[in-house]
Amino acid sequence: MVRGCAADVGGGCGGLACVAAPFGFDRLCVYQLGNQACPAGEYSEAMVVERYNAASDLRACDVPCTCTPLSPGCGGSLKTFDTAGCVGQSFTIPNLACNDAGFVPASAEYIPMATGTCTPEVRTPTGTVVSFDTTTVCCKPL
Length: 142
Fold this sequence. Notes:
Blueprint: E1 12-13, E2 16-17, E3 29-33, E4 45-57, E5 60-61, E6 67-69, E7 76-83, E8 87-93, E9 107-112, E10 118-120, E11 125-126, E12 129-139
């Protein structure tokens, strides 16, 4: 992890600014925008930092996301009763097919099939987020 801060500049060092390592930091580093080589000398340990201030998101699924229905979700049964109010002797007519109830129905209740639902299909994510804001940090080795 790279953590940076602004520091008060001390005396000059051959055209460079010398500062003490700020509290909470274990070493000094310099940075330059872009993916650069570290300068010759003591700042030899390079870290390329991707900042996502400006980026292109190229992530997607390997194939379009879909689902497979568990059931058609249509149809149902008709439960008939020999008295009004859906009470008394009953007979269920499955799948709304033609059946003989054995009595003259006085009331009926529709029982729908379970509604259509889907089982999610597993997909593999592809791609990455590409940063347009790269910074090279060069530090003194520990």
